Amino acid sequence: MEVIQDQDTQVKAQVRNFSFFYGKNKAIKDVNLQVLDCKVTSMIGPSGCGKTTLLRCFNRMHDLYPGTHYEGEILLESQNLLALDPIEVRMRIGMVFQKPNPFPKSIFENIAYGLRIRGIKDKNVINERVERALRDAAIWDEVKDRLKDMAFNLSGGQQQRLCIARALATDPEILLFDEPTSALDPIATASIEELVINLKGKVTILIVTHNMQQAVRISDYTAFMYIGELVEFNRTDVIFNNAAQQRTREYVSGQFG
Amino acid sequence: MQGEELDLSAIVKDVQMRKSISIRKFWDVLFSFVALSFLILGLAILLLLIFQLFVDGRGLLFSWSFYTSFPAPNAAEAGILSAFVGSLFVICVTVLFAIPIGVAAGVYLEEYAKSSSSPAVRILTDFIEINITNLAGVPSIVYGLLGLEIFKETFKLGNSVLTAGMTLGILVLPVIVVTTREALKSVPSTLKEGSIAIGASKWQTIWDLILPASIGSILTGVIVSVSRAIGETAPLITVGALTFIAFLPPLPFSDRFAPDPQTGELVRAGQYGLFDWLFSGYTVMPIQMFDWVGRPNPEFRVNAAAAGVVLVLLTLVLNSAAIFLRIYFRRRIKW
Amino acid sequence: MTNTSLSLIQIRKLIQRQNLFDQLVLVALLMAAFSSIVVTGGILWILISESVSFFSQVPITDFLNLNDPKWTPLFDDKNFAIITLISSTLVTTGVSVAIGIPMGTIIAIYLSEFASSQVRELVKPILELLAGVPSVVFGYFALQTVTPFMQQVILGVQIFFAPGRDEFDYYQLPGFNMLSAGIVMGISIIPLISSISEDAMRAVPKQMREGSFAVGATRLQTSFNVVLPAAISGIIASYILGISRSLGQTMIVAVAAGTQPVYTWNPLEGASTISTFIVEVAKGDIEHGSLEYNTIFVAGLALVVMTLAMNLLGHYLSKRVREVY
Ligand SMILES: Nc1ncnc2c1ncn2[C@@H]1O[C@H](COP(=O)(O)OP(=O)(O)OP(=O)(O)O)[C@@H](O)[C@H]1O
Ligand SMILES: [Mg+2]
Questions:
Q1: For residue B273, what pLDDT band results from cuts at 50, 70 and 90?
Q2: Distance to chain C for A23, nearest Cα, Å
Q3: B164 touches chain C (CB under 8 A)
Q4: Which of C141, C139, C175, C136 is nearest to B53 (CA)?
Q5: What ipTM goes with this model?
Q6: Strand order through the sheet with A11-22
Q7: Band (B276; pLDDT cuts 50, 70, 90)
Q8: How distant is the alpha carbon of residue B114 from its chain centre?
Q9: Which residues sit opposite A150 in a β-bridge?
């Protein structure tokens, strides 16, 4: 197991001897990984290596579909989140998807949704939290005058920031991003990246990306995966400049993948 | 610092969250329970309905004469022979009338109209499409009025098998058009392109490849239409199905009898033509049942129930066949 | 050149012939497609032309009369207040909708969002079989099974709230009543509503559901807050179809709801609906072109207008609801 020595942070989550199966197909093979509190950790690797699959284990998305199962454990602080109620896990760990997926509701209701789900009814609390989430997601100024509009009327980049705001509104302990910018143009991508950097220090972020420059720009730590295995995990600068493994070096220098 | 206080509030939050989760999950379970009981209720009603018919009709169901007798004023002697045969003849006309038109319309809409670039064709097609959707929502009795005015009165076809068959044919037309289109849609474009690429014309491609490939799905639509037509009652009452028919429509080339002018005895007076059955009077199963249900004499309820069993079994068999075929073709054709 | 290959001239000839044939086929297909418009035109034409001759004999104020309305076109004292038939049509449809829409929707949500694929594969064919039961059989069921049952229920309810009376002091549900007919009509539209609604819900992209689950929603919350609104136009379409089916439903009401044209809004009574009236008149012999003959078409027109109004209302609602969400 790779252990990162870092004085100023604690471990937020820890993946231990973890495997995941789609039916008989072992998509994640015996992975060990640390996610450090309030840092950005990125996961890179060639297509089909299991990044999305591993990310979705963190908030138990796989539980929605029959025929999947987990082995090993993922510790959230000290609890194994695989033993918790999946709904509790999802209430504590938010997720932003590859393609923006706003609900067929107004902008305001999209953000308020997670709060209402939790049974919060106080209008003032909801208003305040929605505004805060939209500000944190750097979209408040663009939408503050049209909160009643349907979310579908926003641009792709705005929709994605809306989805980030939706995830932020419920104060998640960890925020998962699955290639959040792959469906966006460069300008929208830049705004999302800036947003992730600003969120550093407030929430723990785990992000899957195909774009290695993006990993360099925004992440503190990087995990390199290959066919279901975790090949190497280290500080981002180490992975990209001084990786220990041959395969990692080949991948980050663009020789395959 | 404030560490301890924070921890305490975190614990309170945890407890609250778990409570909220268990309440919400309880609603999930309750909902599943309600939905499942509705489903079971639906199934129970289907079974209860068949069971009730069986119990009520058991006095006649197992006697052969019920199936070989004409209707009669006496309930115990009245049977379904003419109604059963009448249903078969009417359905024949319906199928012969509706399939060619329905399939042809489906082929046109799916294979020709969609690829046309002319705006006039597009408008026409949109119009036809909306129209077919709306036709599916027109009450069936209104089709009966159409058949009454057009076939029976204007074309002077009278209370005939032909009038009934064509009226039901129009009624099921939308179903056949829609299933044909869906069947054609599921044929992959590679098949069409392959055929076009070796120089086949559009119609050759459709006739030789696309229709054969989609015949199974079209067939399921036809079976569903037949089952629907067998159960339809109201439009046929409107176009004048009779309830008391003590004869069968004449088979083509069967012997025709007429009273001898001198003796008054029935003697052979020639043969029926190929199409005479089309113009014969008739009754059908559901109408016979409806008539029996409405009789003041409760003895006829037995006949009604027994006829109902036959009717339900017919439609159950047809619909099961359609379901089975659909599953079969879906499994077999994996493009 | 082998003898199977064709000269260029031969090919051109062949193509020409094939083109001509294709054109002929196209004309035939077009005519078939056009036939649906002919049918619609025919329906409108007969309804309107017969109604015109109806209104040339009966003043429209009689037809729309709401004061002490009666519908007695076959009597010597003729009355033509259509509200008599419309009220019972609306009552039976109302009862059927009150049963069919909630049950159909709940079943649809369950099948689409909760059930495993095995359960779904098992249940859907059963619903289809239920949908295939002929309506005259449903009518028999309403009359012979549901009515006696409802008679007991209604008696039981009265005894529960006002016990100890003489048996005949309690209200007795008549043998022909709109309640039983409506209930069975409701059951008969469940498969229609649930299958169309379920298709609409299953067409909602799974990413949208995942977005809801990812913030910690349960299945029920996701179904009602995300899936239902996203599928709303398909669901409303299923309601429209179910209501149209109930408005035009004939055999269940003709068998179980009674044939007397009575003006009433009470589902516990029996009354003839529009379609029952048409069937009752058509059962006898009517002379082509007579006033009686015209009445069944004017009744048919009323039915079509109601169905049409329903459709328009549905489209309007569907649009409004989508704007709200
Ligand atoms: N629902 C599923 N059922 C079965 N196998 C799946 C499923 N989803 C993914 N897989 C398989 O699991 C492996 C990992 O897939 P995953 O989507 O996690 O890859 P990824 O690293 O996210 O790839 P990409 O970069 O292309 O998004 C692949 O081999 C894939 O085929
Ligand atoms: Mg992925």
A1: confident
A2: 16
A3: no
A4: C141
A5: 0.89
A6: A25-36, A11-22, A68-76, A79-80
A7: confident
A8: 28
A9: A106
Chain B closest CA to A91's CA: distance in Å?
9
Query: What percentage of chain A has pLDDT greater than the value 70?
Result: 96
Q: Give the SS3 label for residue B270.
A: strand
B105 touches chain C (CB under 8 A): yes
Q: Model confidence at C1, in pLDDT bands (50, 70, 90)?
A: very low
DSSP structure class, residue B113: I
Give residue C199's pLDDT. Answer: 92
DSSP code of B279?
Answer: G
Q: Say yes or no to pLDDT of B325 above 90.
A: no
The model's confidence at residue B264, banded by pLDDT at 50, 70 and 90, is confident
Pairwise CA distance, residues A175 & B32, whole Å: 31
Whether C168 shows a pLDDT value over 80: the answer reads: no
Q: How far is the CA of A30 from the centre of ligand 2 (A)?
A: 19
Predicted pLDDT at B304: 92
User: Which ligand is nearest the CA of A53, by number?
Assistant: 1
A233-237, B4-8, B232-236: least confidently modelled range: B4-8
Say whether pLDDT at C114 is over 70.
yes
**Mutational pocket test of ligand 1: of A25, A68, A206, A212, the residue with most ligand atoms within 8 Å of the beta carbon:** A25
Name the neighbours of A, counting chains with at least 3 Cβ pairs within 8 A: B, C
* Range(s) of chain B covered by CATH 1.10.3720.10: 67-245+281-332
Give the fold, CATH level 3, of B67-245+281-332. MetI-like fold (1.10.3720)
Using alpha carbons, select from B237, B144, A139, A51 the residue that is nearest to residue C280: B237
B92-106, B182-196, B218-232, C43-57, range with the lowest pLDDT: B182-196
Q: What pLDDT was estimated at residue B278?
A: 77
The 10s digit of each residue's pLDDT in A112-167 is: 998 988 888 899 999 999 999 999 888 999 999 999 998 888 998 899 999 999 99
Where is pLDDT greater, at C325 or B114? B114
From CA A145, how far away is CA A87, in angstroms rounded? 33
Q: What is the pLDDT of residue C265?
A: 94
With beta carbons under 8 A apart, name residues in chain B contacting C306: none
Residue C158 corresponds to which tokens in the numbers above?
A: 């009265």
Higher pLDDT, B116 or A191: A191
The finding on whether A67 has its CB within 6 A of some atom of ligand 1 is: no
Chains A & C: contacts with CB separation below 8 Å: 75
- Provide the 10 A C-beta neighbour count for residue B288: 32
3-class SS letters over chain A = CCCCCCCCCCEEEEEEEEEEEECCEEEEEEEEEEEECCCEEEEECCCCCCHHHHHHHHCCHHHHCCCEEEEEEEEECCEECCCCCHHHHHHHEEEECCCCCCCCCEHHHHHHHHHHHCCCCCHHHHHHHHHHHHHHCCCHHHHCCCCCCEHHHCCHHHHHHHHHHHHHCCCCCEEEEECCCCCCCHHHHHHHHHHHHHHCCCCEEEEECCCHHHHHHHCCEEEEEECCEEEEEEEHHHHHHCCCCHHHHHHHCCCCC
In the structure, how many helices (H) and strands (E) does chain B have? 12, 2
Token pair, residue A17, equals 């001897």
DSSP B141-185: HHHHHHHIIIIIIIS---S-HHHHHHHHHHHHHHHHHHHHHHHHH
Out of 2.120.10.30, 2.40.50.100, 3.40.50.300, 3.20.20.100, the CATH code matching A11-252 is 3.40.50.300
Return the SS3 of B258.
strand
Q: Which residues of B touch A88 (CB under 8 A)?
A: 17-18, 21
Could you list the beta-strand ranges (E) of chain B. 255-259, 266-271
The packing angle between helices B161-185 and B81-107, to 10°, is 40
